[in-house]
Amino acid sequence: MKKLIHSDPEIIESVIRACSVCFVGMADTDGTPYVLPMSFGYRDGVVYLHSSQEGRSISILERNPRVCITFCTDPQLTFQHPEVACSYSVRSRSVIGWGIVTYEEDPEKKRDALKVLMRQYADQNFHYNDPAVRNVKIWVVPLTEMTCKEFGVQSGR
Ligand SMILES: Cc1cc2nc3c(=O)[nH]c(=O)nc-3n(C[C@H](O)[C@H](O)[C@H](O)COP(=O)(O)OP(=O)(O)OC[C@H]3O[C@@H](n4cnc5c(N)ncnc54)[C@H](O)[C@@H]3O)c2cc1C
Questions:
Q1: Are 75 and 90 in contact, with CB atoms under 8 Å apart?
Q2: Which ligand 1 atom is at minimum distance from the Cα of 50?
């Protein structure tokens, strides 16, 4: 089995599109890491996240807004020889992106971010009422760097 590194933006985007959750890594100023599973939307190199207005993540991001976000497609177990442990591998593709969180405050842009987010999960339009839009915190993360790897690829490919 081998690993492939992808730099084609279409492949990278297809990996992100195939995921239903991402893992948002943060670092507090004393170095304590904090990683949260979160739903997300993605458009043109920008990740959109939503949360409540307060919590540990928001406190950390106030001190350090830099994040590392990992996306991973559903892993498929694969092997070359069922009796050989080291021939087992996990077939999966993942993307890691880095960026800085800012918060969207404009109600129409918040609605737009929620649309991008829901597009990841459902192929329909939703209505967002004013209180819901007001109460939600929208994180905007333009990714400044991305890497993509594919694991468990049969040798010969
Ligand atoms: C698949 C999935 C998707 C999610 N999508 C979203 C999303 O889109 N938006 C969103 O706001 N939240 C989402 N969550 C929940 C998210 O992971 C956090 O629990 C939530 O955002 C609160 O984070 P916080 O830092 O404000 O925690 P706080 O409420 O401040 O948490 C207090 C303490 O609880 C613990 N804790 C917090 N979150 C978790 C966790 N996930 N697992 C274990 N312990 C935890 C930590 O020790 C933390 O110190 C999702 C969770 C899952 C499993």
A1: yes
A2: 9
> Ligand 1, residues 28, 34, 56: which to mutate, most atoms within 8 A of Cβ?
56
Overall domain count for the chain? 1
pLDDT digits (tens, 9 = 90+) for 41-78: 999 999 999 999 999 999 999 999 999 999 999 999 98
Distance 60 CA to ligand 1 centre (A): 13
Ligand 1 atom at minimum distance from 40 CA: 8
Residue 112's closest CA among 102, 104, 124?
A: 104
Instruction: Report the SS3 class of residue 95.
Output: strand
How crowded is residue 122: how many other Cβ atoms within 10 Å of its Cβ?
8
Burial grade of 112 (CB within 10 A; 0-12, 13-18, 19 or more): middle
Pull the structure tokens for residue 131: 């209180």
Predicted TM-score of the model (pTM): 0.95
Residue 55 belongs to domain spanning? 2-153
Ligand 1 atom 22: the closest Cα is on which residue? 55
Could you give phi then psi for residue 144, rounded to 5 degrees?
-95, -15
CATH number at residue 88: 2.30.110.10
| Continuous segment of H or E residues that includes residue 30 | none
